[in-house]
Design a protein that fits this description.
The complex is a heterodimer of chains A (382) and B (447). Chain A has 382 residues and is an all-alpha fold. Chain A is built from 18 helices and 4 strands. Chain A has a domain of 247 residues: Orthogonal Bundle (ABC transporter involved in vitamin B12 uptake, BtuC). Chain B is an alpha/beta fold and 447 residues long. Chain B has 2 domains: 216 residues, 3-Layer(aba) Sandwich (Rossmann fold), CATH 3.40.50; 134 residues, Rossmann fold. In chain B, the strands form 4 sheets. A 7-stranded mixed sheet of chain B has the order 7-6-8-11-12-16-17, with helices on both faces. A 5-stranded parallel sheet of chain B has the order 2-1-3-4-5, with helices on both faces. Chain B is globular, with a radius of gyration of 24 Å. Classes of the chains: A mainly alpha (382), B alpha/beta (447). Chains A and B meet through α1, α3, α9 and α10 of A and α1, α2, β2, α4 and α5 of B.
């Protein structure tokens, strides 16, 4: 009985999630975020964070090098565009596979340690990848300038199918649908929903239970004679594939791959996203990713003119005082705002934004319950 | 683990249904996406320009100065302030009443000197704010990345401070235009001065910022100094924004080189030059010659940052505030009145770019990229501080005189740090467009 209820609530959650994602352009319009590029970033970094959460949220292994897989995915996708075809499907597929492959390699070594040593090992690998991409492997990655498409690229599959892009630089297209703008967003959104569904299945599966057990007490698991490393490695590879997929999608919507995608700041960003949204919850990472990308793109663009307009209802002296204070927190000061927000959330809502939602829900529920007959229900995992 | 792979038929159907809905949805939105005749055709009484500059990172100082210049240019185009170089500009199409009867407004963004961030910021300006032109960027890597984006999106890109040959060479695009000079011109202008001061038997050691501009600069300087008879001892690549260059400078002492070429810019150059001087390189004698340092691309901001250390060091620059032509004087005056200090070469080139775009759009009578582009192609003008200048049609690169400068021995103020050694005439730095390769391709107006 309980299982059926749970299945139904999962279905409702999935449908609501899908509806919210697909209606994104309409919902986010009033916030100034309803334009294709940012929507694509929401979806892509949502995928990245969901994947990271499978590792960090379930097993508790804090990887500080996930950006390496993001970068590998991007480079793979751009090379697929250059060599095979401008169709995003092979690019995304290969990006996912290669992300998984590198995750298997790095995970195999890093997972020999736990805790801070694991984090440092992954950080070291990511930094190595970054430096390789930045200077050593310049013929493959084109260094700081970034890997770009050229008109003269071979694109053997496109040529084989008689596809001719003429004298202009091609952009990726899914059987004729251009992957920039809104169609690009809907492609990413579809992948996001699929990824969310897979993540949900993992959370509910015995495998997910095993991963949670790894998080709660790995020693005890080992004493019972169970080897936990294959489970942790599987989680690491899955999250690496998610990261590779996200990197591939970044290249699909904008065919350019740069080394800075692998920098440690990018690795740190996904940790922030997951913690901000709520570690170990299904929806949290997506919300965290959205929040951070929103700050990065919208807050950073506020300049003094916009602020002066916003506060134009105030008397002039007060207006200038308010603007001069507020301008510290917008524009190039967006990191400051983000840092303050992060501190507030970690201190008051250790479970991230999702804990806030849950607390709000509990408050609401109590009110409703006091009217009708009480029926105790276990709090859901989110 | 086995159970995890078990997906029931029902859940598979559900997943498939969700995916189908997701794939079907885009058709609702695509139809109305780009309905205008060209990307972001301005419909109201204003036209929006996008200023994309580094506000954080190694080139933040340049970015801040660029933004100041853009704001000044917008004021002058809209008829506020004293008009600056509009009064000395040889084209009189702009009258201070905006462009094509529309008031110019602008949006800004932070490139962070990273290609990804710069493209995200440019996309926001194009997709959300409706910018019809993007300009800015202090870094050739960023400029090339954003130029490619603008070509795809169908807006004009007016490059800011970008000095790599590739911007209007290998990676040139029809929608992109550059007023700034490039490393080929620096090499051609600098070589004779180096010959006169250091002779023809030198052993040069290059430290190079590891990205498109550094490579380009290193290539050009090597090419021209080796023609003089110089030898290149080594060329070492340093990461952009390295901060500490001591590990790169120590080997120079033992390499037998007698000349150090610093292919660095911005804070990188300030740090590497300062450390090279601290290591005592300039007091050394190698092969019976005084050790020399050359900084091929100079700017007043950098010279100021490096302080005492720049005295007597040669380099080239696009423009300097102490120039005495009418255009430069007018620009320095109105910039100084607004901000209280003289503009840098970054400010100058971006101010010119904003004015040149506005003027071209006014003469074309439209903001359509192909229209604006056509009126910029082969456009000859004067009065913008560089003497007679031409936007070459073949590669959308400006050709003008190049300044060779030297760190001043006795500066009279903290801004008076460079002196002009030679003005190399345009004819001497000009090269055929085919030399650098690349293809412009057709204009893209979007749709």
């Amino acid at each position: 009985m309980v299982a059926i209820i749970k299945k139904q609530s999962d279905l409702v959650l999935l449908l609501c999630f899908a509806a919210a994602v697909l209606a994104g352009p309409v919902i986010l319009q009033p916030f100034g975020a309803g334009y294709p590029d940012l929507l694509q970033k929401f979806a892509i970094f949502g995928i990245f964070a969901i994947g990271f959460n499978i590792l960090f949220g379930l097993t508790g292994y804090l990887s500080f090098g996930h950006a390496a897989f993001l970068g590998i995915g991007s480079y793979t996708a751009v090379w697929t565009f250059k060599l095979l075809s401008m169709n995003p499907l092979p690019a995304v597929l290969l990006a996912t596979l290669l992300g998984g492959l590198f995750a298997a390699l790095i995970g195999f070594i890093s997972l020999r340690r736990t805790g801070i040593y694991f984090s440092i090992l992954t950080l070291a690998f990511a930094q190595m990848s970054y430096n390789l991409a930045y200077s050593v492997l310049t013929p493959i990655t084109n260094g700081e300038t970034g890997l770009q498409l050229r008109q003269a690229d071979p694109r053997v599959l496109d040529v084989a199918f008689g596809r001719d892009y003429g004298a202009v630089l091609p952009s990726s297209d899914l059987f004729g649908i251009d992957m920039t703008g809104y169609p690009g967003f809907y492609f990413c959104a579809a992948v996001l929903i699929l990824c969310f569904y897979i993540s949900m299945r993992i959370f509910r599966s015995p495998f997910g239970m095993m991963l949670r057990a790894v998080k709660s007490n790995q020693n005890r698991m080992n004493y019972t004679g169970l080897n936990t490393r294959p489970y942790a490695l599987a989680a690491f590879v899955i999250s690496g594939m998610y990261a590779g997929l996200a990197g591939g999608l970044l290249a699909v919507t904008d065919p350019l791959a740069g080394a800075e995608r692998m920098q440690w700041t990018a690795s740190g960003e996904v940790v922030l996203m997951t913690i901000l949204g709520g570690t170990g919850t299904l929806l949290g990472p997506v919300i965290g990713a959205g929040a951070i990308k929103y700050f990065e793109n919208i807050f950073s663009a506020f300049n003094e003119n916009i602020l002066l307009n916003t506060f134009s209802f105030l008397p002039e002296t007060l207006q200038h005082a308010v603007v001069s204070v507020a301008s510290l927190f917008v524009g190039e000061g967006w990191h400051l705002t983000l840092g303050a927000l992060f501190m507030v959330i970690v201190i008051f809502l250790p479970g991230g934004l999702m804990e806030g939602v849950r607390r709000f829900g509990v408050l609401f529920k109590r009110k409703a319950d006091s009217d009708g007959p009480t029926e105790t229900q276990p709090a859901s995992a989110e | 683990m086995a159970n995890f792979t078990k997906v029931s038929r029902r859940s598979l159907l559900r997943g498939a249904a969700a995916a189908t809905t997701a794939l079907a949805a885009p058709t609702i939105f695509t139809s109305k996406a780009w309905a205008a005749g060209y990307t972001n055709e301005p419909k109201g009484s204003t036209v929006t320009l996008g200023f994309n500059v580094p506000q954080t990172g190694a080139y933040a100082d340049e970015g801040a100065d660029e933004l100041r210049a853009y704001q000044l240019a917008v004021e002058h185009i809209n008829g506020e302030g004293d008009g600056g170089m509009l009064n000395t500009f040889s084209s009189k199409a702009l009258t201070g009443a905006g462009v094509n009867g529309k008031k110019v407004v602008f949006v800004t963004g932070d490139t962070q000197t990273k290609s990804d961030a710069a493209r995200a910021s440019a996309k926001r300006m194009i997709e959300k704010d409706g910018a019809v032109m993007i300009t800015g960027g202090s870094s050739s890597g960023v400029a090339i990345a954003v130029q490619g984006l603008c070509q795809d999106a169908g807006v004009i890109f007016m490059a800011g401070l970008t000095h790599s040959n590739d911007t209007t060479g290998k990676d040139k695009r029809a929608n992109g235009f550059r007023h700034f000079f490039n490393t080929e011109m620096t090499g051609a202008a600098l070589a004779p001065v180096l010959k006169n001061n250091f002779g023809t038997e030198r052993n040069a050691y290059h430290l190079t910022a590891d990205y498109t501009w550094g490579w380009s600069q290193e290539g050009s300087i090597k090419k021209y100094t080796e023609q003089l008879g110089w030898n290149t001892a080594a060329a070492v690549r340093t990461p952009l924004g390295a901060g500490d260059f001591s590990q790169y400078i120590t080997p120079v002492l033992n390499s037998g080189a007698d000349t150090l070429v610093l292919n660095h810019y911005g804070r990188d150059m300030v740090n590497s030059l300062t450390q090279a001087v601290q290591f005592g390189l300039r007091d050394k004698q190698v092969n019976g010659k005084d050790f020399a340092i050359v900084v091929p691309l100079y700017s007043r901001l950098m010279a100021q940052g490096a302080g005492e250390n720049v005295k007597g060091i040669f380099g080239s620059t696009n423009w300097h505030w102490s120039l005495q032509d009418e255009g430069s004087k007018a620009f320095v005056k109105s910039f100084g009145q607004k901000y209280g200090f003289p503009p840098s070469q970054a400010a100058h080139t971006t101010y010119c770019q904003a004015l040149l775009y506005a003027d071209a759009a006014q003469r074309a009578g439209t903001f359509r990229p192909s229209g604006v582009g056509k009126s910029l192609e082969g456009f000859k003008f004067d009065g913008l501080g560089n003497g007679p200048t031409e936007y070459r049609a073949e590669d959308h690169q400006c050709f003008k005189d190049v300044l060779v400068v030297k760190g001043k021995e006795n500066p009279s103020s903290k801004f008076d740090v460079l002196e002009v050694v030679e003005v190399t005439p345009r004819a001497q730095v000009e090269y055929p467009a085919s030399l650098l390769g690349g293809e412009l391709g057709p204009y893209n107006d979007g749709a």
